[in-house]
């Protein structure tokens, strides 16, 4: 999950057949029993809407996340790097596909979700509003951004909503590959020429703090988490996940021979965790508000890609309609 805590659980109660499910003992018992909620099960309307919004934001992040790295496909330093990067970016498109499909099982319409992304009514992770200035940034994104994503997503494999949880199992396997390819890029640069090592260090310096912000605001400032935890959507708090990521990443930085740009980062024997410096969340909130370095560019590119792809969607639906028609239905089905 990419920064799932910026959209509030939807507390509105729309009158309808699902309303009764708010107090549905079957739903409550299912959650208490760590069971999975499936698309045809009764569920509270607020649960459904919260999931649609979270899954949509996740899906949007996957496809917008293709842009910063896609920027380097044509300039990858070798054919091997290019082939790996293309596979990685293509995986992200696939993650978007699984997630939009998971949102559809909750009754959401994919075209409508994309429309909400394009009009700015739904968000994507702020991390993708930072530029990729050098090849080393591709390494830093794989290592840190995909690493943070894995930390967020592994608990989502046990999310109470079945289709989302199952999508996460495959996504996490692919994210592990992404993280390792990023680590390997940085390891190669870090053990290359002094200029290459400087490039790797610079990328890590720029991506470290934004990757910590991917876990969302501090727990004290995250009023939505409690409801998501009660519903079994979220399993650990933002700060717990952030700490887990830091504890995992510090030894990896040492193995890379690179430093993390936080002079207060040190092992706390008593806590059994690394202490870290204060995170400047004002920067994060500026980026969320649309004032990040690349917000406008990312959205413009996405809208253009959507418009340019209109003929593909038309052809695909014409093809589907043709094949859905009963045999001998004749003309006029496309
Ligand atoms: Fe992904
Ligand atoms: Fe990834």
UniProtKB/TrEMBL annotation:
Region (Disordered): 1-26
Alphabetical list of Pfam families matching this protein: PaaA_PaaC
InterPro entries listed in its UniProt record: Aromatic_CoA_ox/epox, Ferritin-like, Ferritin-like_SF, PaaA, PaaA_PaaC
PANTHER family noted in UniProt: 1,2-PHENYLACETYL-COA EPOXIDASE, SUBUNIT A (PTHR30458:SF2), PHENYLACETIC ACID DEGRADATION PROTEIN PAA (PTHR30458)
Protein name: 1,2-phenylacetyl-CoA epoxidase subunit PaaA
Provenance organism: Nocardioides taihuensis
């Amino acid at each position: 999950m990419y920064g799932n805590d910026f959209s509030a659980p939807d507390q509105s109660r729309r009158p309808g057949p699902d309303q009764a499910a708010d107090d549905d003992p079957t739903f409550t018992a299912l959650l208490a029993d760590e069971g999975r909620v499936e698309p045809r099960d009764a569920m509270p309307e607020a649960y459904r809407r919260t999931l649609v919004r979270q899954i949509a934001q996740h899906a949007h992040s996957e496809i917008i996340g293709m842009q910063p790295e896609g920027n380097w496909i044509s300039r990858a330093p070798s054919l091997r790097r290019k082939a790996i990067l293309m596979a990685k970016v293509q995986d992200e498109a696939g993650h978007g596909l699984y997630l939009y499909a998971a949102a559809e099982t909750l009754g959401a319409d994919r075209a409508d979700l994309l429309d909400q992304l394009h009009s700015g009514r739904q968000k994507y992770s702020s991390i993708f509003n930072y530029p990729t200035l050098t090849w080393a940034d591709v390494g830093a994104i794989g290592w840190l951004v995909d690493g943070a994503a894995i930390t967020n997503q592994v608990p989502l494999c046990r999310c109470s909503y079945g289709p989302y949880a199952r999508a996460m199992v495959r996504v996490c396997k692919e994210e592990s590959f992404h993280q390792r390819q990023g680590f390997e890029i940085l390891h190669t640069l870090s053990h290359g020429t002094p200029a290459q090592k400087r490039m790797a260090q610079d990328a890590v310096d720029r991506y470290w703090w934004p990757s910590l912000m991917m876990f969302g605001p501090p727990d004290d400032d995250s009023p939505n988490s409690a409801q998501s935890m009660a519903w079994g959507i979220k399993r650990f708090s933002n700060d717990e996940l952030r700490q887990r990521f830091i504890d995992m990443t510090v030894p990896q930085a040492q193995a890379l021979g690179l430093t993390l740009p936080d002079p207060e980062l040190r092992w706390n024997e008593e806590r059994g965790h690394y202490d870290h410096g204060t995170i400047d969340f004002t920067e994060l909130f500026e980026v969320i508000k649309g004032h990040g370095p690349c917000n406008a560019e990312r959205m413009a590119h996405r809208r253009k890609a959507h418009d340019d792809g209109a003929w593909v969607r038309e052809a695909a639906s014409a093809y589907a309609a043709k094949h859905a028609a009963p045999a001998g239905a004749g003309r006029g089905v496309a």
